[in-house]
Design goal:
Elements lengths: L9 E2 L19 E4 L1 H12 L4 E4 L5 H8 L4 E4 L2 H4 L6 E3 L5 E3 L1 H7 L8 E7 L1 H4 L2 H14 E12 L10 E5 L4 E6 L1 E2 L3 E2 L4 E2 L2 H7 L5 E6 L4 E7 L1
Parallel strand pairs: 3-4, 3-7, 7-8
Antiparallel strand pairs: 1-13, 2-10, 5-6, 8-15, 9-10, 11-12, 14-15
């Protein structure tokens, strides 16, 4: 896997005032968006039986129901919240603060190789600590079956550093409900970086193919195939 370095990404500095809400608490207003990437994944979900799906987000009753009613096997892990564990912080050989990737992967994504047909990565790379992005993507590659699909969302440079972090709930064939989530006791998750297309291609360089969908809400949807 190619390294995701400071020179390859634009980082947002500073902090914004956050709410002390629980991570699962949603604001009064809920947003919906149409997803071309989800539409493509849906065709696979509809044409095959007993697929194994990994959803990298907080528990979603919508998503559990969506997949189990169609006879698919469903797994969910909140990797973003898991990465906020302060005990993961260590120093690298240069004295820089990083997160302990070996421990993190030992405690998360502990699946056998080539298990999943579909992985929903959502917006995880944009909000996760830089030191974990490359190891997590490499691990996801190994957990996907050959020909398996991974859907991820990336912000464009016009999104701005205060773009809220959303949990995506699947409503139908190509419709998603967006729920604003925050870190318990820490406030809003902070957008860490913006990848351009070349950086995204580099991040998924070990995958067999990559397809981009540009949405109107400053989001690029990326569908990769192992």
């Amino acid at each position: 896997m190619a390294s995701v370095s400071n020179t390859l990404m634009r980082f947002f500095r500073g902090s914004s005032a956050g709410s002390a809400e629980a991570a699962t608490k949603a604001p009064a207003q809920k947003l919906t968006r149409r997803s071309s990437g989800m539409g493509e994944v849906y065709r696979t979900l509809s044409s095959q039986e007993s697929l194994c799906v990994l959803d990298l987000g907080a528990t979603s009753a919508n998503n559990i129901r969506f997949f189990t009613e169609r006879g698919h096997k469903y797994h969910s892990e909140d990797l973003l919240l898991g990465s906020m564990d302060p005990s993961l912080a260590i120093k690298d050989e240069h004295g820089n603060r990083v997160l302990d990737e070996k421990r993190f992967l030992a405690e998360n994504l502990a699946y056998e190789g080539a298990l999943f047909d579909i992985v929903f990565c959502w917006n995880l790379p944009d909000y996760m600590d830089e030191s974990l992005v490359k190891p997590v993507v490499a691990k996801l590659w190994s957990t996907l079956k050959p020909g398996g699909m991974l859907l991820a969302f990336f912000h464009t440079k016009d999104a701005g550093p205060d773009s809220p972090c959303y949990r995506y709930h699947i409503l139908g064939q190509d419709m998603l409900e967006m729920q604003h989530i925050v870190a318990p006791g820490k406030g809003s998750f902070r957008l860490q970086r913006v990848f351009n297309n070349r950086h995204i291609e580099n991040l998924f360089r070990d995958f067999a193919s990559i397809k981009f969908f540009l949405a109107r809400d400053n989001i690029r949807e990326v569908l990769v195939i192992r």
